[in-house]
Design goal:
single chain, alpha+beta, Rieske Iron-sulfur Protein
């Protein structure tokens, strides 16, 4: 086992197990305590990778036909954006959902005992989660189609998720995420996990994202090959990387609970009992998980919403915007501004010190969705957003995503060890 840190200067890491390494017999227990595992070629070792890939290609065949499906098979699933529009990819996602749902019980019956070492009855979400996240610039070129996809499917299917815990979007509080790379996923197009936040009390928005004034902590990003798996607790704070690569992130993930699911919010996800799912009693496989007041209460809330007796929660509140006025911040001293760190200068401006000792100042809100950049860091001369790993050149303000507005930069003067910023 090897502990790896991807953030210079921090000792937070994950356990990276090579394809020949033995899996710990207590891996499920360790995940539930907050440990992170990356398992190389895990799906190949379980002899399930070809099935997963075939299910994805079958979804492509249903939407685009056998000829295009064969071309994608040859070029790679991470190149699907070369053959399909955003609307077609949304339809492919739905088709793969349907295909994987018919196979989920069989797949999970091998994953849970062989990987997690759990043989007692367990629960799992009936439909695995399917994601196709295309390059950001291509996605924004189809803005009208994107708005329609979000309206129909919500965020997260083909668009990046904000930092969240699964329990904030009404999943069980005691689940294990089995996050599978069906295609190769480079670091600039994957998932971010914030291990510092595990076990901390954090505020969320009504729509299930991290409250924008909460510090998510040190991020971990991953470079995965097809068939690699990340195992993590659902209450780890995690988000999507804004896709700055030339490949599509294709992921299928399973949510598994080794005991009865527990809910902190609404109870509407479909979790089935392992001994009932996929067999003659499949129609009642959800009953054991739903035998709880939370399930009844959620249905009553839905009925009240449809009858107009109560209002649904407000929309996403973690977008760009101004903070309410606050007390003036103390001056930033250059001598205390360590290379690679960011400090707020005001409610609207941050300052950072680069490796060559140059001090730069820039807008405090990320141009993407308004994350507080004072919670980010500077790496290799780039300002890194804490939410979606968006990276801006600290000298030009530009990012690899051409469709994204550049970071606003300001003139800086250093007088008597104090950073002074001209914002006019």
């Amino acid at each position: 086992m090897l502990y790896i840190s991807l953030v210079s200067g921090h000792d937070h890491g994950y356990i990276d197990l090579a394809d020949a390494a033995a899996w710990p017999t207590n891996i499920a227990e360790r995940v539930m305590t907050g440990e992170l595992f990356v398992l190389r070629r895990c799906m190949q070792r379980l002899d399930l990778f070809d099935d997963l890939r075939a299910a994805s290609l079958d979804g492509i065949r249903q939407v685009l036909g056998p000829e295009v499906s064969a071309r994608v098979d040859a070029e790679g699933l991470d190149q699907i954006h070369r053959f399909a529009s955003l609307e077609q990819i949304a339809k492919i996602t739905d088709a793969v959902y349907r295909t994987t749902a018919t196979q989920a019980a069989r797949w999970v019956s091998k994953i849970v005992p062989d990987l997690l070492g759990v043989t007692e009855p367990y629960y799992f979400e009936r439909r695995p989660n399917v994601r196709f996240v295309i390059p950001y610039d291509l996605m924004m070129q189809e803005a009208d189609a994107l708005a329609g996809v979000i309206k129909k499917h919500g965020h997260g299917k083909v668009t990046p998720h904000p930092p969240h815990r699964d329990s904030w979007v009404d999943c069980p509080t005691n689940l294990i995420n089995i996050w599978i790379a069906v295609g190769p996923i480079p670091e600039g197009n994957g998932i971010t996990i914030f291990p510092d936040a595990f076990g901390r009390t954090l505020a969320s928005t009504p729509s299930g994202g991290l409250a924008r004034d909460e510090h998510p902590g040190t991020p971990l990003n991953f470079d995965l090959a097809a068939g690699d798996v990340i195992l993590f607790h659902g209450n780890h704070l995690h988000s999507s990387v804004l896709n700055r690569t030339e490949s599509t992130r294709h992921v299928v993930s399973f949510r598994v609970v080794t005991e009865k699911p527990r809910y902190a919010g609404k109870h509407y996800h479909h979790y089935v009992h392992s001994s009932l799912a996929g067999g003659p009693l499949d129609l009642v496989a959800e009953w054991p998980a739903n035998f709880a007041w939370g399930w009844v209460e959620t249905r009553l809330i839905w009925i009240a919403e449809r009858l107009g007796l109560t209002r649904r929660p407000g929309g996403r509140t973690n977008g760009a915007g101004r903070r309410p006025p606050s007390a003036p911040l103390p001056p930033v001293a250059v001598s205390r501004l360590s290379p690679g760190t960011i400090q707020p200068v005001s409610d609207d401006v941050c300052a950072a010190r680069l490796a060559d000792a140059k001090v730069v100042a820039f807008g405090r809100r990320c141009p993407h969705e308004g994350a507080d950049l004072s919670f980010g860091h500077v790496r290799d001369g780039e300002v890194v957003c804490p939410w979606h790993d968006v990276r801006f050149d600290a000298r030009s303000g530009k990012s690899a995503c051409q469709m994204l507005q550049p970071l606003r930069l300001f003139d800086v003067q250093v007088e008597d060890d104090v950073v002074r910023v001209r914002t006019d």
